[in-house]
Design goal:
Blueprint: E1 2-6, H1 9-25, E2 30-33, H2 40-47, E3 57-60, E4 62-64, H3 75-84, E5 91-93, H4 102-115, E6 120-123, E7 145-148, H5 151-157, E8 170-173, H6 176-181, E9 184-189, H7 195-203, E10 221-226
Parallel strand pairs: 1-10, 2-3, 2-6, 3-5, 6-9, 9-10
Antiparallel strand pairs: 4-8, 7-8
Helix pairs in contact: 1-2
The chain binds fructose -6-phosphate (F6R).
Length: 234
């Protein structure tokens, strides 16, 4: 696990963008993507670059159950706004939050991941150590599954909604086993509220109670943190 400390998000996004560019030059074709506030500046860097994704595939980590892609709180909508409308890909996969048969949907999503092995995965980090929506206690062997969001994650995500009650209570998430299969990963974390999770992920034991700690097992992961998020790491 390589840790890079940067002064701020903009600098961190540029570091992540440089790694992405190197991976593309080396032949990367399939990209695992995250939503949330963490990767927004990274996506701006991508949009403002001349990188071409028209022959590339993206696979997102997660989607809220119950939200249609046209809903402005859905992750599909977020990705359209922050990346896909400006940078067209050959194909973009996200779980279908409106699937009537969620069991079938998680199986179908695993089949998509198997058919398109991820070359480069972008991750954010929950303050409780989650990656994707793999909350503390999720088995490291999990593949795509339906998640009951924890109270802390619902509260953290309420900032994007008019009311906390509007935050969906479930999501479909890529599992930890699938995330670990990515050939390479970059995890970004900004702000003091992520400092404890960053510390546990980098310096702590590998434990299901801090899902991101499993990333210590991967041999091609770069963690990019700002001063506040990285205050407990060297
Ligand atoms: C979103 C995702 C989540 C977020 C995490 C951090 O697709 O996978 O794990 O990365 O909740 O969220 P932000 O970036 O909003 O702090």
């Amino acid at each position: 696990m390589k840790v890079i400390k940067v002064a701020n998000q903009l600098e961190g996004a540029k570091v992540a963008f440089d790694i992405l560019s190197e991976k593309i030059a080396a032949g990367a074709k399939t990209f695992g993507l995250a939503t949330g506030s963490t990767p927004v500046e990274f996506y701006n860097q991508v949009i403002n670059s001349n990188l071409d994704f028209t022959d590339k595939t993206s696979i997102n980590l997660d989607e809220y159950v119950g939200l249609d892609g046209s809903d402005d709180q859905s992750y599909r909508y977020f990705m359209n706004q922050h990346l896909f409308n400006e940078k067209p890909f050959h194909q973009n996969f996200l779980p279908n939050g409106k699937a009537t048969d969620l069991d079938a949907e998680v199986k179908a999503y695993d089949a998509i991941i198997d058919a398109h092995p991820i070359d480069f995965q972008i991750l954010g980090l929950g303050a409780n150590g989650h990656i994707g929506f793999n909350e503390p206690g999720t088995p490291f062997t999990a593949t795509t599954h339906v998640v009951d969001l924890t109270e802390s994650t619902i509260k953290a995500n309420a900032r994007f909604f008019d009311n906390e009650e509007d935050v969906p209570k479930q999501a479909i998430s890529m599992g930890i086993a699938s995330i670990l299969k990515s050939k390479s990963l970059v995890l970004m974390a900004w702000g003091a509220e992520k400092a404890d999770a960053v510390n546990g992920m980098v310096n702590g034991d590998i434990t299901e109670s801090l899902p991101a700690s499993v990333l210590q097992k991967h041999d091609d992961i770069v963690v990019i943190v700002d001063e506040a998020a990285g205050k407990f790491v060297k």
